[in-house]
Amino acid sequence: MQAVRAGPLDEVRELLEAGADTNMRDAQGNTALHKAAIAGSVAKAQLLVEHGANLELHNRFGRTALHEAANVGWPEVCGILVRLGAEAHAKDGPLLDGQTPFQVAQEQGWTDVCAALKANERRRVKLASGETLLFSCDFRGLEPAPFSPKRMNVDATWGVESVHGVWGRPPDPTKPLFVARNTAPGQRLSSF
């Protein structure tokens, strides 16, 4: 875990290739992913997830790696963790009934982290055809109706090139799902 917190990326890669456990915990219950999130290392976080790090492990305070990144104020780390599948609505606290990462960032005053979390949030909608689609949390239009031959392509997709913020395939984890909204200093963000 020391290598994740302060070592070079190559050292972390070597340890992972040698079989290091990505989900090993320290005395506080933090995993290597928690340490990468606290350190603000996007590359290390992505490498750990590629080698099997669990995005949803809670430390003894009930915080996930996404909570820790939001608490410290790393918008890039928050964005990559959400794009890799971290639960943006996970609650912290000993009973897991506390705050979401967005609320943690909002409490700390990290408007750029709040904007990154809001921009990368998505929800999965299951259609009657059995397919699922990802929607932006900012999607303002009508969601597509469940399977209808008149509304969908002949191959039962909604259209990958849609301008409505809908995907027929998973998004590229190296690119942001949506552009973060800039907020003026002192402007309050609404919670999701």
Overview of this protein structure:
By secondary structure, this protein is mainly alpha-helical. It folds into two domains: 2-120, Ankyrin repeat-containing domain (Serine Threonine Protein Phosphatase 5, Tetratricopeptide repeat, Alpha Horseshoe), CATH 1.25.40; 122-183, no CATH class. The protein has eight helices and three strands, in the order H-H-H-H-H-H-H-H-E-E-E. It has helices at 2-6, 9-17, 32-39, 42-50, 65-72, 75-83, 101-108, 111-120, and strands at residues 122-126, 132-136, 166-167. It has a three-stranded antiparallel β-sheet, with no helix packed on it. Helix 6 (75-83) packs parallel to helix 8 (111-120). The longest helix has 10 residues, at 111-120. It is globular, with a radius of gyration of 18 Å.
Task: Enumerate the strands of the largest sheet in spatial order, edge to edge or round the barrel.
Answer: 1-2-3
Choose one word for the global shape: globular
Please state roughly what percent of the residues sit in beta strands, choosing from under 5%, 5-15%, 15-25%, 25-35%, 35-45% or over 45%: 5-15%
Uncertain ranges: 143-152, 160-168
Order of SSEs, N→C?
HHHHHHHHEEE
